[in-house]
Amino acid sequence: MKLQTKIIVALVPLFLVVFAAHSLFTYQTAVANARSNVEREAHNIRAVLMATRRVYHQQFIKSGLPVNDTTVGFLPAHALSRISKDFPQWTGSGLVFNNVSDRARNPDNAADETELAAMNFYRENPDVKERFVLVDAENNGEFYHYTQPIWIEDYCLKCHGKQPDAPAGIAARYDSSYGYELGDLRGVMSIKIPSKTAHQQAWAAFWQGMLVDLGGYFGAFVLVYAMLVRTAVSRLKVLERGAEELAGGNYEWRSGITGSDEIATVATGIDAMAGRIGTRDTALRDSERRFRGLIEAAPDAMVIVDQRGMIIVVNTQAEGTFGYSREEMLGQEVEFLIPTRFHEAHRTHRQEYFRHPVARPMSLQSLLLGVRKDGSEFPVEISLSATETDNGIVVTNTIRDISHRKQLEDESRENRDTLAHVARMSTMGEMATGIAHELNQPLAAIATYSYTARWSAEQFTACPPELIDSLDKIEEQSIRAGDIVRRLRQFVKKSKSEDVPVDLNSLIGDVARMVEPDVRQSEVTLDLNCHGTQLSVRVDEIQLQQVLVNLIRNSIDAMKDTPDEQKYVVVSARLYGPGVAEIAVSDLGPGLSDQETEQVFEAFYSTKKDGMGMGLAISRSIVEFYGGKFFVESNAGQGVTFRFTLPLMCDEEASRAAA
User: Fold this and answer.
1) Strand, coil or helix: 592
2) Helices (H), 87-128
3) pLDDT confidence of residue 535
4) Domain spanning 498-658: which superfamily?
5) CB 237 within 8 A of CB 214
6) Using CB atoms within 10 A as the burial measure, which of 161, 172, 321, 624 is most buried?
7) Higher-pLDDT residue of 2, 529
């Protein structure tokens, strides 16, 4: 409800109450005035009646008229009662008057109950000159009763003194109303006026005055209302508009209200306050602008939270880091930026930090995880800085996404592990050369001794054939073991690269013998499909053996969990095209995914838990060095095929090499 309406609502009842009170007072005054008028009118009537009564009474006595039925009507006491009865014929006022007594000679002058009460009153209060009361009679209704006492005077004693002294006509006619003495109460002059007469006068005066008062009160109401509107409401509206302007940030607004009253004082205070707020707001905006600039210029994500843990400020870097817009983050609990499983623990740590806020640089923070809008988690470093404000402590969280650094660290760690493994393998290669050299002599001795034992046994005709067969096998296996050791030594020894003509069919056979222990131990079936004719290429034989051994061993490792009856590795050589040969190694393992197929030739990438990830990268570099190409074909769950091509030697070159 507006103030103007409130003023109307307040003034209308107030004016109505005041007007009602004034009207009541006016009515009561009108009633009192009407009563006074009636009383004054009765007083005047009584004066006329008493003067008439006295004059006619004395005149009657002086006339010497005898008192008889004809002349008795001239007596004032008799005449007044008759005049009172005839009075209503001339007026409708209802006024009744008479001189009455409690010892009346004429029955028409006998006092009634009300008049007797008046006579008793005067006897008890002889000093009272008149009596005017409102009487509510059951038969006559409500009326005003005015009385004045009639005391016995000297001339009264002539008729009301001693009966013998009374005029002969009176003494002969009346036997009562004698024996009065001077000063006795003879009766009262009684005047009865209906109360409606006074009421009519009162209402007439009241309505006449009320119309005037109503006009005056209405004018006063309009005047007061106009003054309030001018001096209060209109100026308060100015202040109201000013409050809206200030709330909207217009601190240049001024009220323009002058004066020395309270509203002017308030307006002056508001103007001064607006100036101070404007100055502070300008300074605050400048400070906030600088602060925002610093926040936005920060290279890391900045998230500021209040004591409730609610985010109140973020920068653009925070939007990019977490994937949320600024509006989505503001007002959220800071825990929604970390994985759900850490919420309770982080909330506890946050509350503890607010109790004991100490700046914590990134170098002292434990590694934490953030969570992006898409649900992905990433490692972060966080530093904390607490600031005391008017609204309590706020904490600035500087958040740095270290995903790339962690990736580099992990890759560096993996590279160190791989290099260490390579170093160990290099050491093992050097050791293998020495071991192979050391094993050659005992293997040669075993072969010699087994041959000698077999020859000696053959000299005895009773020698069991089984013994000779066993000795043959010992000799055969020792020669075979020596051959394996020789190839191993040749494979791992450090030597200068030398390109020579190599028959791919022969190479496949040699490699098959080299991997035979692995094939047998893994229970894999190795199927060799060589080309029908010689396929000669000029390469470093050891390096090409390394390529083929790596492919076969990869296939064997890939089928560790494959059922034994499905463990097949197929090595084939064929003519790929004019002047180009192809070697393929296929298995029935689980195959490779699309992503693994794309990455399989990358250095240090391996699908095996303990793999170094260098074999295929080195193999491809060897093949490409000799002008070939490397391919991989995989159907996930149905095995994989590695193929590489090499340029064949021309016929002339192959003939010279064979010669």
Assistant:
1) coil
2) 113-124
3) 92
4) Histidine kinase-like ATPase, C-terminal domain (3.30.565.10)
5) no
6) 321
7) 529
Inter-residue contact 573 to 529 (CB < 8 Å): yes
Give the position of tokens 């006491």: 77
**Which sign does the torsion angle of CA 363, 365, 331, 395 carry?**
negative
The domain defined by 298-401 folds into Beta-Lactamase (3.30.450)
Q: In the block, which residue shows the tokens 């923070």?
A: 365
Rounded to whole angstroms, the Cα distance separating 417 from 426 reads: 14
What angle do helix axes 465-492 and 403-458 make, rounded to 10 degrees?
150
List of residues 6+ apart from 322 with CB closer than 8 A: 301, 329, 337, 370, 371, 372, 373
Dist CA 366 CA 570 (whole Å): 53
CA 57/CA 55 separation, integer angstroms: 5
Q: Do domains 298-401 and 403-494 have the same CATH topology?
A: no
Query: Out of 3.40.640.10, 3.30.1330.60, 1.20.272.10, 1.10.287.130, which CATH number does the structure's domain 403-494 have?
Result: 1.10.287.130
> What is the pTM (predicted TM-score) of this model?
0.38
The pLDDT value given to residue 199: 78
Q: Which residue has the tokens 């030739």?
A: 601
Rounded to whole angstroms, the Cα distance separating 386 from 353 reads 9
Contact 382, 398 (CB under 8 A): yes
pLDDT of 647 over the 90 cut: yes
Q: How far apart are CA 470 and CA 403, in angstroms?
A: 65
Q: What contacts 525, CB < 8 A, 6 or more positions away?
A: 567, 568, 569
